[in-house]
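Appendix B. Raw example, untouched.
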Amino acid sequence: MEDISTATVRFIGRKEEDAQQLGWLLSNAANANFSFEHVTGLDSFINTGRASQGDVIILDLTENSESRLAAVSQLGQKVPQSPIIVLTDEDEAIGRDAIRQGAQDYLIKSQLTTDGMTRSILNAIQRHHGHARTAETSSLLDSATAVLNRLPIGVILVTADAKILFFNDKAKRFLEKNDGLTVGADRVCRATLPGESRALAKLLSDTLNPGDSNRAEGDFAISLTRMESDQPLNVMVAPIGTGMAGKGAVLFVSDPAEPVALSIDAICRLYGLTPAEGRLALGLTNGHKLDDLAEEWGVSMHTVRSQLRQIFRKTDTSRQSEVVKLILTGPAALQAAPRL
């Protein structure tokens, strides 16, 4: 690493000669500026939690390694701001166990060098910072999941070989019914009918490896037969990620027989519609035809068409499908569930 790094290294161990060796090695570091402190009492350090931001802990596991191994997780809880490196004898298994307990790295006592220690400390700091960022963003990811759970359609994230990585609550209900879509012990998402399952797998493959750039939206959709309903499940597949490691797809799953429970008031506020226009927009979103809505509401087709023209003008759309897409992909869809 080219940047000069500064850290306070706290060695927790009983042997003064080990502390002297570590301190001398660190004093010769060319690309880092380390200060060194020897702490003899592990229990007192754990109890006081005496560490600051920028500190690095080296814990001696060369004596009583099994009992001291438990101290790794205790230190991680007491001083979470500090990366932990353990010092071991020739047994690398102890070092690997320490990493599983939360340590960032391990050093073998007989192989200590200035360059090796410096590299280990700087890598541990970087690794610890990356872990801290993951912990900090976990609540944000939880909130993002909560948003997906409020969508009126099912969302399933799959790998290139159709293994499920994530699904929202709506998709979970579809999968639990095992009717149209199902998931096995291998976590592969399949259609319940073998022929449609093969068609879904081919659709996923074609989506991730398109050979024709002029394909229409309908080429990425499929209807899956259900035994318990006259209406199929509708599935739209969209690719995400790039490269072999990150390639995958999102399956958007909807049930045309299930009404979309959105707030007419929210639709009106978002798009400047009147209550009658909002009611019509929601009716279209639920898949109803204009003449059916006119008959249900006891109004003329002229009135409904006039309202539809106003919706087109106010939402800058020109087709009913565009209105439906606008509403289902907009914030009004999130009003169907309680606030986060």
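End of appendix B.
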